[in-house]
Amino acid sequence: MRQIILDTETTGLEPSQGHRIIEFAGLEMVDRKLTGRHLHLYMHPEREIDPDAERVHGISLDFLADKPKFHAVADELVDFISGAELIIHNAPFDVGFLNAEFSRLGIAPVDKLCAVVTDTLRMARDTFPGKRNSLDALCDRFEIDRSNRTLHGALIDCELLAEVYLWMTRGQESLMMDAGPGEGEGGTGLNLAFERKPLTVLAPTAEELAAHQEYLDLLDKTVKGSCLWRSIENPAPVPS
User: Fold this and answer.
1) pLDDT for the residue numbered 29
2) Does the annotation mark 38 as catalytic?
3) % the chain with pLDDT above 90
4) Which of 19, 38, 93, 94 has the fewest CB neighbours in a 10 Å radius?
5) Sorting pLDDT into bands at 50, 70 and 90, what band is 147?
6) What SMART domains does this protein map onto (predicted)?
7) Mean pLDDT over residues 52-68, rounded?
8) What's the mean pLDDT in 2-13?
9) Which one of 19, 38, 57, 152 is the catalytic residue?
10) What is the model's pLDDT at position 208?
C-alpha cells in the first residue's frame, strides 16, 4: 500500500472558526522507502492569519498573495492522497482541516478517500507514556538531525516524520530509505539511512556477582527455601 507522510500549516487552530490550510506537504512511501514523489503546495486562505500561528510557521499573508486558493489545487491534492495510508503526527488536527476544506467543495472526507489514517502522536504516547512526544522530542529521542528546522514547515516536518515513523515501526532487520534528487517525480533530495545498532552486553564485575549472591541468600532466608532464581541459574538435571 502507498503511504503518504502528510503535514499542513494553517491560519489558526480551529477549522470550525473558519481557519484555513495555507500549506500542504506529502511524501510518498512504498515498501518503507521514499519514492521521490511528493506534493508541496501553498494556498491563499482568503482570510487573515492569526499572529500566534504566523510566529510558529513563519508564513505571512503577503507571501501567499500570489498563491492559488484551495479550490484550484483540490483535485491535485485529492489525487495524490486517494487510496493511500496517511501518516500524520497529531492526525485529528490535519484531518479536521482537510475535511473542512473538502466539505466546502463537496468532496468526500478523508476516511472515504484514503485507506487508513495512522497517527504517530498516538503511537508515540502508547510507546512512551508520560514522556514528551512532540515531533521535536521524538527527533531528539531517536537522534534525528533537526538542525534545519528553525520554524514549523510542512515539507521539512514531513521529512522528519518519515524518519520518526520508520524508527517507531522498525523490525529486527536494518532499514534503508533512499531517495536521491531526480528519483521519481519531484525528487526531494533525501538520502536517509537507518541501521539497527548492535546490542551491547556488559559482563558483570566480581563485585556485582558477589552482591547478586548476597541478595539471593537473603531471598532464600525470606522464603525459607531456595528462591526461584536459583532454579533458573542452576536448573535441575533432566533424567535420561
Assistant:
1) 97
2) no
3) 65
4) 93
5) confident
6) EXOIII (SM00479)
7) 95
8) 97
9) 152
10) 76
What is the Rg, in whole angstroms, of the alpha carbon atoms belonging to the chain?
25
User: Residues 233, 220: contact at Cβ < 8 Å?
Assistant: no
Cα 75 to Cα 3: distance, rounded to the nearest angstrom? 19
3-state secondary structure string, the chain? Answer: CCEEEEEEEECCCCHHHCCCEEEEEEEEEECCEEEEEEEEEECECCCCCCHHHHHHHCCCCCCCCCCCEHHHHHHHHHHHHCCCEEEECCHHHHHHHHHHHHHHCCCCCHHHHCCEEEEHHHHHHHHCCCCCCCHHHHHHHCCCCCCCCCCCCHHHHHHHHHHHHHHHCCCCCCEEEECCCCCCCCCCCCEEEECCCCCCCCCCCHHHHHHHHHHHHHHHHHHCCCCHHHHHHCCCCCCC
First to last CA, the chain: 53
User: How far, in whole angstroms, is CA 185 from its chain's centroid?
Assistant: 23
Contacts (Cβ under 8 Å, ≥6 apart) of 114: 4, 81, 82, 83, 84, 85, 86
How many Cα atoms are found within 13 Å in the side-chain-facing hemisphere of 123?
Answer: 17
Cell numbers placing 41: 503546495
pTM value is 0.70
Q: Mean per-residue pLDDT for 170-181? A: 45
pLDDT for 115-133, tens place per residue?
999 999 999 999 999 999 9
d(CA 34, CA 13) in angstroms, rounded, equals 30
C-alpha 183/C-alpha 27 separation (Å) is: 13
